[in-house]
Design brief:
Elements lengths: L14 H15 L11 H8 L3 H13 L3 E4 L3 E4 L16 H22 L2 H19 L5 H14 L3 H12 L3 H10 L2 H19 L3 H20 L2
Antiparallel strand pairs: 1-2
Helix pairs in contact: 1-3, 3-8, 4-6, 4-7, 4-9, 4-10, 5-6, 5-9, 6-7, 9-10
């Protein structure tokens, strides 16, 4: 007789949801009223014993559900108080969860592309870069061109499974991701991202897998640092 395995009736809540509920509890416990400012991110992270990245995801989840208001250059304010912890719903994976996966996977995809990319594949990557640069000069949102760049690298591997993985990861950039970029995307980061993409491209053109891996990892680590710094 086969041993029975324990069945789970519900998916474990994501970390940002747990942290968000702890922030709600702290607001109630410390009697922080509507319109009042919360402690700084640094102090909140220390109080709750969580990383700044996890805290930032939780605050954005609370902002999306209307419990707090993030005012640039001023702080985080209570917008609504509730005793119902269950109001914090799952909004997909957190941005840093997605970035963590991308840092593991995309550098290896870039290395593979550097080994096997054809001239046509290289041209497709260059087309995506040029589209990003043109969009930047016109101050147009270039998320679709950014996506096209990373997918072109995946296509350059000649492996459809790799393309599927990158597509899946990009499809996880949901409401939390877009709110995070709204608050913390800067002109400096956009320019650095364009330079990063050029370095990745040059490594692939040179058929240098080690350099392509390094360049992609550096790019994704830069994005992570910018979105998590105070």
């Amino acid at each position: 007789m086969m041993p029975q395995t324990k069945k789970t009736t519900a998916q474990e809540p994501r970390l940002y949801r747990i942290v968000a509920e702890r922030i709600q509890a702290l607001i109630l416990e410390e009697k922080i009223n509507i319109g009042e400012r919360l402690p700084s991110e640094r102090d909140l992270a220390s109080k709750l014993l969580v990383s700044r990245a996890s805290l930032r995801e939780a605050l954005i989840a609370l902002e999306l559900t209307g419990f707090v208001e993030v005012r640039g250059g001023s702080g985080i304010y209570v917008a609504e108080k509730s005793d119902a912890q269950s109001n914090i719903q799952e909004i997909g994976p957190g941005p840093f969860e997605v970035l963590s996966a991308r840092r593991m996977i995309e550098p290896e995809i870039a290395a593979m592309a550097a080994r096997v990319a054809t001239d046509r594949a290289v041209d497709d990557i260059l087309t995506a870069i040029k589209a990003m640069e043109l969009a930047h000069e016109s101050r147009i949102d270039d998320e679709q061109n950014d996506r096209a760049f990373h997918l072109a690298i995946a296509h350059a591997t000649g492996n459809s499974a790799m393309v599927g993985v990158v597509e899946y990861l990009w499809n996880q950039r949901g409401r939390l991701w877009h709110k995070l970029t709204e608050h913390f995307q800067t002109e400096e980061l956009r320019l650095e991202a364009l330079a990063d993409h050029r370095r990745i491209f040059q490594s692939i053109v040179a058929h240098d897998p080690a350099d392509a891996r390094k360049a992609m990892r550096a790019h994704l680590e830069r994005v992570t640092r910018v979105f998590s710094r105070g």
